[in-house]
Amino acid sequence: MPQEPENGNQQLDSPDNSSVHLVDVSEEMKSCFIDYAMSVIIARALPDVRDGLKPSQRRILFAMHELGLAPNRKHLKCAKIVGETMGNFHPHGDQAIYPTLVHMAQPWAMREVLIDGQGNFGSIEGDPPAAMRYTEARLSAAGALLMADMDKDTVDFVPNYDETRMEPSVFPAAFPNLIVNGATGIAVGMATNIPPHNLSETIDGLVALIDHPGLSSEELLEYIKGPDFPTGGVILGREGIVNYFTTGRGSLKVRGEIHFEELRGGKSAIVIDEIPYNVNRASLVEKIGELVNQKVIPEIADIRDESDENTRVVIELKRDAVAKVVVNNLYKHTPLQTTFAVNMVAIDRLRPKSLNLKELLSCYLDHRHEVVTRRTRFDLNKALERAEVLEGFLIALSRLQEFIEIIRQSSNRDEARRKLLDREFSPEWIESLGIPLDGQRMSEGAMYRLSQRQVEAILDLRLYQLTGLEREKIAGEYAELLEKIKQFRLILASEEKIWAIVKAELLEIKEKYGNPRKTKIIPDEGDVAFEDLVANQRVVITLTHNGFIKRTSLDSYRSQRRGGRGVIGMSTQDTGVEEEKDFVESLFNASTHDFLLFFTTDGRVYIQRVYEIPEKERASKGKNIASILELKPTEEIASMLRIVANTQASDGRESSWDKEGYIFFCTLKGKVKKTPISEFRNIRKGGITAISIEENDRLIDCLFTDGQKEIVLITKEGKSIRFSESDVRPMGRNAAGVIGIDLQPGDEVVGMSLVDHRATLLVVSEKGMGKRTSFEEYRKQKRGGQGVITMKTSDKTGKVVKAITVFDEDELLVLTLKGNVIRIHVKDLRKTGRNTQGVRLVQLDSEDKVTSIARIIPDKEDNEESLFP
């Protein structure tokens, strides 16, 4: 009796003594189907997340590479390419290979074509390509970039289907092909549909991710705006884009691009200039004709397809037709408006995964990091091998007669090889030739011996290489190689250098091959950005000593003459008798669409839109800043800077994200630093470090600069120093800065200003005294000195509380401890010398004192002067 195995299958003996297994059919089919499904998923239908290619596409491109079809070489018949691919790498028939080749050459299907086709490769109207015996192709520049440096051991090679040759498992991919060209594929139980994107934007996103690895997928929208289809068109709304950026799945509403034209006879026409991605133009025209015949859109009088290489479909309307109604019907009933369902699935480490945008970019960056590392290691090994040979040449040429005698006295090459391998040289003599000692070629007696490679190279030396000129060439090449070897080792020892190379190569590709985006992104009906719902109004931002912030309409302030009592700018007394008095500490001018950067005394920075600041009346206390920003317990606001929304700043008082420049920092203890504005473009909700603050120090102020300004620091005891901004090199966010002024014991920095020869420096003391002095009175010094006197301080003046740069047309707000706000004109203040006490700006009660001042600039568009610059 046969024994039943443990797995439940039976083994029977057949008449010819072979074994027959009885198996459960359902289990066998399940197992076979899973194997088949995984084969389809991994090896056929889904792209690799690193190079964005399916196996069939990769094999076609590699076959073209093997055939030498570079972008600068002549085209070759597609039949030859298909034959090479089928015979060497992809034995699935020409009916599977040729359509894949054609697809990679169609500019309406690929955002960056990988193959440069010559001949009839089909059309956007669905016309089929000519037979492969008629068409020709070669690699495009983008296709060649995918295989750049493949010969430098940058990727793994595996045996082909019959193990007669090797093929790459993935390409080095010098540009992010998966994101740029997208991918479509249907596997077993899963599918992928990745839209194409703009090359320049994608590289900007990659560079941002290298610089700021903590960026979220949603923050990448700042760089990658959304899909960029090769056929152009319009995407409605950003909700679908945000969804697939963050989750890997989303739905996009895509429309064709149209415009209206006036015809003779009072008629009008709708002209379709671009059609949605993957829409057949001929089918679209046919569909519109059917709707006209069926009286669904009876307002259309005629339709003509006048397209050449560019789309132009003219829809002529009847005289009484309403164009907008016709357009809406076209969107509703035809493919002029379609939906693109995004499902970003790709093969990552031999497993299919659903990935969001950041994950796709990160996978590509990790691949490029590995490629650069392997390429550098390959170059290092090649350089070491060549350097080893050159060392042997230098040794042989230095003892030429001795080596010639050894070779001449040898009966054959093997004997000469053995004698040279046994020859030893002192380390001192080797070093005298400029050759660094290598322990691997040192004998037990601490002597240098030639390697097998060196001996073979010496025996292969030709007579002309013994000339003096050739010796100099060998020495020069060896010196260059030593420097290269040093650089390669430095790169491999530094992650920062590797990432810098990845970044530089991406930016080079952007510079050479980047192009403007073709697809517009507009708000959907009812999908309006929140700031579009907020009126762009001029406001005053006020922050109190106890951290209460508000925005107030500009109309709440009125102008006063110098020496006036002022108006109450804020209710600073709480209802409780024991409550501490509060006072206005900072005042900032902005419009509601602008951005505010909040720099804290601990050296961190937070960002907020102005319209997000609560609006309060002038006498209202405002809202605690801690409920708006995620401040740490020890943090207070030291400075606020305005980033202008969609505006190019021009005077250094404000800036925009697009402007090249710096933020200049100053601390209480006289430390200064400047950091590029671009470092602060992506600030997390919880804030980021702006400057490292040392113990017992704090940040007091920040200014916008262009890198060419001069800075003045003013201290509490009335000292000041003027120095060039170029004395301070640009530093990263985490740097602590350098010494700006050498302070005397007990002194502190209270102000920082930019030098402007059209303006003056205004210094104000706590007892209401002020003076403005020409910058010519302050001689330029090197940073780090003790400075000069800027105001004679006494019991009458009190200590200096603030100093700012002012213009004659400016106005000032003087803020006092009791919350009074006095507005005065700068032109009413006469200029005085540097070494004086100044004039009285405001009349103060005996218990009141000046806490701060703010410069305000007249608005030329209004009859009255205002706070808004």
TrEMBL record:
A UniProt-annotated Pfam family: DNA_gyraseA_C
Active site: Y134 (o-(5'-phospho-dna)-tyrosine intermediate)
Subcellular location: Cytoplasm
InterPro entries per record: GyrA, GyrA/parC_rep, Gyrase/topoIV_suA_C, Topo_IIA-like_dom_sf, Topo_IIA_A/C_ab, Topo_IIA_A_a_sf, Topo_IIA_dom_A, Type_II_DNA_Topoisomerases
Catalytic reaction list: ATP-dependent breakage, passage and rejoining of double-stranded DNA
Complexes and interactors: Heterotetramer, composed of two GyrA and two GyrB chains. In the heterotetramer, GyrA contains the active site tyrosine that forms a transient covalent intermediate with DNA, while GyrB binds cofactors and catalyzes ATP hydrolysis.
Limits of the Topo IIA-type catalytic domain: 46-533
Its biological purpose: A type II topoisomerase that negatively supercoils closed circular double-stranded (ds) DNA in an ATP-dependent manner to modulate DNA topology and maintain chromosomes in an underwound state. Negative supercoiling favors strand separation, and DNA replication, transcription, recombination and repair, all of which involve strand separation. Also able to catalyze the interconversion of other topological isomers of dsDNA rings, including catenanes and knotted rings. Type II topoisomerases break and join 2 DNA strands simultaneously in an ATP-dependent manner.
Miscellaneous field: Few gyrases are as efficient as E.coli at forming negative supercoils. Not all organisms have 2 type II topoisomerases; in organisms with a single type II topoisomerase this enzyme also has to decatenate newly replicated chromosomes.
Protein's UniProt keywords contain ATP-binding: yes
Protein name stated in the entry: DNA gyrase subunit A
Family recorded in the similarity comment: Belongs to the type II topoisomerase GyrA/ParC subunit family.
UniProt cross-references to PANTHER family, sorted A to Z: DNA GYRASE SUBUNIT A, CHLOROPLASTIC_MITOCHONDRIAL, DNA GYRASE/TOPOISOMERASE SUBUNIT A
Enzyme class label: isomerase
Enzyme Commission numbers on file: 5.6.2.2
Record flagged with keyword Ion transport: no
Name of the gene encoding the protein in the UniProt record: gyrA
